[in-house]
C-alpha cells in the first residue's frame, strides 16, 4: 500500500491534472494538460499530445477504468517499484517533451516550464537539489532517476521526491507529519 508520504507528494500533481476538479482523471484532463503544455512550451503539439495521451492510456490501462481516482493512482504508484521499465518509459517521454531545444538536456528554465505545464502555475522547485551532478542541467539519466524517485519511491530524503516542489507536511530532517 502506498505510504502517507507518497500520497502527500502525488496528491498535488493529481489535483493539478484534474482540470475540471471532479476528483477523477479522464481523457479530457489529459487533453487539457496537453493544451497547457502547448501554451506554456509551444512546439510540436502532435508530439506533446502523443506523450500526454500515451501517459493517459498507460494510467487508464493500469487502473482498469476510464475515470481514475487518486486512490487508483496510488494503487498504480504502489506497484511501480516492481515495474521500473514503465516508469523509465514515461520518464523518457517526459524528458523529450521538456527538452524544448532538443539538446538532450533539460535546463532549469525548461524544467520550470515543465512544472508550469504540469501544475498550471510556477511551483517552488529547488532545481539545485534535483541537479544531481551540479552541472546546471539534467541529463536524461538524471531525469529518469528523479522520475523514478518521485513516482515509485518512498524515500523522504531522495531528491526526486521533490521533483514537483516541496511536499506538504515534510520538513528537512523531520519525520512526516500526519
UniProtKB/TrEMBL annotation:
MF terms (GO), sorted A to Z: calcium ion binding
Q: Which domain of life is it from?
A: Bacteria
PROSITE patterns the UniProt entry points to: EF_HAND_1, EF_HAND_2
What Gene3D superfamilies has UniProt attached to this entry? EF-hand (1.10.238.10)
Output the InterPro entries linked to this UniProt entry: EF-hand-dom_pair, EF_Hand_1_Ca_BS, EF_hand_dom
- Stored SUPFAM superfamilies: EF-hand
Tell me where in this chain the EF-hand domain is found. 86-121, 127-153
Q: What is this protein called?
A: Ca2+-binding protein, EF-hand superfamily
